[in-house]
C-alpha cells in the first residue's frame, strides 16, 4: 500500500473511493495545514519545472495558483490583496517582461 502523507485536493478521497479503493485521511490543524501547503507549493513548482509542453505548464500553473489562493486565505488575505502586492512591486521594481539576467555588479 503506497503511503503519501501529502496534502490533496478536496475531492481526491471521493475519487479514490469511486475507484473501489480504501484510504485513510486526517484533517490538519491550521499550523500543520500551512506547512503542508508550503510543501505542496514546492511539489507543484518542481512539477512545473519538469513540464515539456505549454499545456502541461499551464496545468501546473493552475495548481500553483490554487495553492496561492489557499495560502492567502491562511494569512488572512485574499488573492486580490496578493495581486495588489504584485502590482505594487511591478510598479516600483518592474516585472519580468524584459527578460533581464543580472550577471554581476561591481562592488566599489
In short:
InterPro entries: MSMEG_1276-like_NTP-PPase_dom (IPR038735). This protein is mainly α and 108 residues long.
Task: List its traits.
MSMEG_1276-like_NTP-PPase_dom; 0% strand; 108 residues; mainly alpha; Phosphoribosyl-ATP pyrophosphohydrolase
Q: Average pLDDT, to the nearest integer? A: 97
Total beta strand runs: 0
Biggest sheet character:
none
- Backbone shape: elongated
Order of helices and strands: HHHH
Radius of gyration: 18 Å
| Class from helix and strand fractions | mainly alpha
Low-confidence stretches: none
What share of the residues lie within helices?
55-70%
- The share of residues in extended strands comes to under 5%
Number of helices: 4
Amino-to-carboxy terminus distance: 60 Å
Amino acid at each position: 500500500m503506497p503511503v503519501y502523507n501529502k496534502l490533496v485536493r478536496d475531492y481526491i478521497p471521493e475519487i479514490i473511493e469511486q475507484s473501489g479503493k480504501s484510504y485513510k485521511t486526517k484533517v490538519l490543524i491550521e499550523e500543520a495545514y500551512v506547512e503542508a501547503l508550503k510543501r505542496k507549493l514546492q511539489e507543484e513548482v518542481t512539477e512545473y519545472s519538469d513540464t515539456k509542453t505549454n499545456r502541461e505548464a499551464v496545468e501546473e500553473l493552475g495548481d500553483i495558483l490554487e495553492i496561492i489562493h489557499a495560502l492567502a486565505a491562511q494569512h488572512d488575505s485574499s488573492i486580490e490583496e496578493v495581486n495588489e502586492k504584485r502590482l505594487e512591486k511591478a510598479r516600483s521594481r518592474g516585472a519580468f517582461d524584459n527578460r533581464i539576467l543580472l550577471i554581476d555588479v561591481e562592488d566599489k
